[in-house]
Design a protein that fits this description.
21 strands, 45% helix, five-stranded antiparallel sheet, alpha/beta, single chain, eight-stranded mixed barrel, 549 residues, elongated
């Protein structure tokens, strides 16, 4: 007997070290607790006995959880599960629980023994891992994985919802000019500002990609339109970071379930198509998806494949539009690419150049087109009868290619063309980042004897601060201002001030897109130096100039 009692005490000691033990009657009242239960709950046995487990209820589990538990054990069956409880001091702990009914001779439970083990540390680790799985590390917002799960839940429930894909315009320039750390800080501030749009618990804001956020919401169409307007409204004021203001713009694509797709993949793909359409419409705008966008997307995919083939096979030709001085003499040409494809016919540069930009083909395409220009230049000069200059449009991506200068020089040497006869046209976009680098590249062009022109001036957001530092030769007035200069007071004012500014800075100025005599006369009267447009001459192949001279 003594040995049996000793064995029982040993078992009890072992249980107190490893196991949380409680016994309850059929009403759930606690009739026994061991030391381990008291330690983890921070209640004494006197405080626990006579009470139900509601004394440690954390309100984490809903009523159905405990109803299922009681339905199981009241039938004499064992129940197992994980329960989150609350200790006396309010702290939370988790237990892995097994409840075993003790049955009388009729097979009915007369008490329940609960055997539990502390799994709090394990649950904390699980929560940390789950957080890493569903949370964006930079902004702290939900990530694409979390968003996908939430969208699929709504689809399974056949719940109507709308999805906004919010894509930042030109975020690459932030990374390039500020570095990834500071760019990520700005992303976090953007996420915080967008979070103000969340109107209810069913709305979810997630960061789905590098420069892209998504807003999932179950609202009416009217409220949805208000949310879109609010996105643009809250970013009318800049993001302030390290004593500098940054103006943020977005392109937004909008889709509706079930109208625009029956899966997360379809909805996101269609929302992206709407974003790309918005970007094509001039940025800082939004587009609601429609099926015609997929047709456009299929054409873009086809263009991508045909473009790659055309670059490999050198299927492009260059046309040349004359530029005239004040005396009406041809002083130079602008080179403009043309592409005729056997399958699609003539394809506008306005269509295939953006595709080349997005796919990365713009750099090999740019070098191919420059090669065609230096090949044509001797023949063009021969056709005109004098050593004429040709302007070549340099894309933004090609401008920042580290091999730019060496490759252009190699092509000039290969075709024995003097760089003095080349004019390089750059866009206002070069002023958005890496200003010292931009200045150094322009200087290298100038050192080679090439002229440098700032193209499409006024169509972007050029900084006058940088403009005075750029060692360029010429400014070209964008044709959008020339088009309505006689009817739009703002366009006229911009043209007048640009001509004055250019001359004050020592630059010459060219107006492009001239189509009427009235436009030409006005620009001549205001002191414009050179003129280009369909009124004076359309872009033509070299062979045309042989025939006309």
């Amino acid at each position: 007997m003594h040995s049996e009692l000793k064995e029982l005490y040993s078992i009890q000691a072992a249980l107190n070290e490893t196991t949380i033990l409680a016994i309850t009657d059929t009403a759930g009242r606690i009739v026994f607790t061991n030391d381990k239960f008291c330690n983890i709950s921070q209640y004494t046995s006197e405080e626990l006995i006579g009470h139900t487990h509601k004394i440690i209820n954390s309100n984490y589990h809903d009523s159905s959880f405990f109803r299922d538990m009681w339905n199981t054990i009241s039938k004499g069956k064992k129940w197992t599960g994980e329960i989150r409880n609350r200790a006396k001091d309010g702290s939370i702990y988790w237990v892995d629980t097994a409840i075993i009914p003790f049955l009388d001779h009729d097979g009915s439970p007369y008490q329940y023994v609960s055997i539990r083990h502390d799994i709090t540390d394990r649950k904390k680790l699980e929560q940390q891992l789950h957080k890493q799985l569903i949370e964006d590390k930079i902004t702290g917002l939900p990530n694409a994985f979390y968003l996908e799960n939430e969208v699929e839940k709504k689809i399974l429930a056949n719940e109507e919802f709308r999805l906004l894909l919010i894509n930042m315009d030109d975020f690459k320039s932030f990374n390039e000019s500020l570095g990834s750390h500071h760019a990520n800080q700005i992303l976090t501030l953007i996420g915080e500002r967008l979070s103000s749009l969340i109107q209810c618990e069913k709305s979810i804001l997630a960061r789905t990609y590098n420069d892209e956020f998504a807003l999932l919401c179950s609202v009416s169409d009217t409220n949805f339109q208000l949310i879109i307007k609010e996105v643009f409204h809250i970013f009318e004021n800049p993001i302030s970071y390290l004593y500098t203001d940054y103006y943020i713009t977005f392109c937004i694509g909008a889709v509706h379930y079930p109208t625009h797709g029956n899966s997360y993949e379809d909805l996101m793909q269609n929302a992206d198509s709407a974003v790309q359409t918005a970007k094509g419409n001039g940025k800082n705008t939004y587009t609601l998806f429609d099926e015609s966008m997929n047709n456009n997307k299929n054409r873009v995919l086809l263009l991508k494949n045909l473009l790659h083939e055309a670059i490999q096979q050198k299927k492009f030709v260059m046309h040349y539009q004359p530029q005239y001085n004040f005396q009406g003499e041809i002083i130079s040409f602008e080179s403009l690419v043309r592409w005729n494809n056997p399958l699609l016919g003539d394809i506008s540069p306005a269509e295939f150049i953006p595709v080349a930009e997005r796919t990365g083909f713009i750099i090999p395409l740019g070098y191919l087109l420059f090669e065609l220009v230096v090949q044509d230049l001797p023949n063009l000069q021969k056709a005109i009868g004098k050593d004429i200059k040709v302007a070549f449009n340099l894309s933004l991506k090609q401008f920042f290619d580290t091999k730019l200068i060496s490759k252009l020089m190699h092509l000039c040497e290969l075709y024995q063309v003097d760089p003095h006869y080349i004019k390089i046209e750059i866009t206002e976009g070069v002023s958005s980042s890496k200003i010292p680098y931009v200045i150094s590249i322009i200087k290298q062009f100038r050192d080679l004897g090439m002229e440098v022109e700032l193209d499409d001036y006024g169509s972007g957001f050029s900084s006058l601060k940088h403009l005075k530092d750029f060692p360029i030769n010429c400014i070209k007035i964008d044709q959008s201002f020339v088009k309505d200069l006689l009817t739009n007071a703002s366009s006229k004012a911009i043209i007048n001030s640009t001509i004055h500014l250019a001359h004050e800075l020592g630059f010459t100025i060219i107006a492009e897109g001239i189509e009427t005599e009235e436009q030409l006369h006005y620009l001549r009267d205001k002191g414009c130096d050179a003129f280009q447009g369909y009124l004076l001459g359309k872009p033509q192949p070299v062979s045309y100039y042989y025939q006309s001279n």
